[in-house]
């Protein structure tokens, strides 16, 4: 199927798909990195909030 299509197209499909996957991987990585940073920031905010609360509230939050 792919071979038959490749014969008719000026650009080989395999190179296009590989560059597309590289592009997708790159954008996916960027998304992962920004998400990780965001989650880390949220966690930092939460730990600050937890440490500022009293022991009883801290226990309730951890459960």
Task: Describe the protein in words.
With 63 residues, the protein is mostly helical. The chain has one domain (2-62). Helices cover 87% and strands 0% of the residues. The chain contains 3 helices and no strands. It has helices at residues 2-8, 13-52, 55-62. The longest helix is centred in the middle third of the chain and has 40 residues, at 13-52. It is rod-shaped and about 65 Å long. The relative contact order is 0.06.
Spans with pLDDT under 50 lasting ≥5 residues?
none
**Series of secondary-structure elements, N-terminal to C-terminal:** HHH
Major sheet description: none
Amount of helix:
over 70%
Task: Offer a concise description of the structure.
By secondary structure, the protein is mainly alpha-helical. The protein is built from 3 helices and no strands.
Give the SSE layout.
Layout: H1 2-8, H2 13-52, H3 55-62
What descriptors fit this protein?
single chain; 63 residues; mainly alpha; 87% helix
């Amino acid at each position: 199927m792919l071979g038959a299509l490749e014969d008719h197209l000026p650009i080989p499909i395999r190179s296009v798909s590989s560059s597309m996957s590289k592009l997708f991987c790159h954008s996916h990585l960027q998304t992962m990195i920004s998400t990780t940073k965001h989650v880390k920031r949220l966690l930092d905010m939460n730990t600050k909030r937890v440490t500022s609360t009293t022991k009883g509230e801290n226990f309730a939050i951890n459960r």
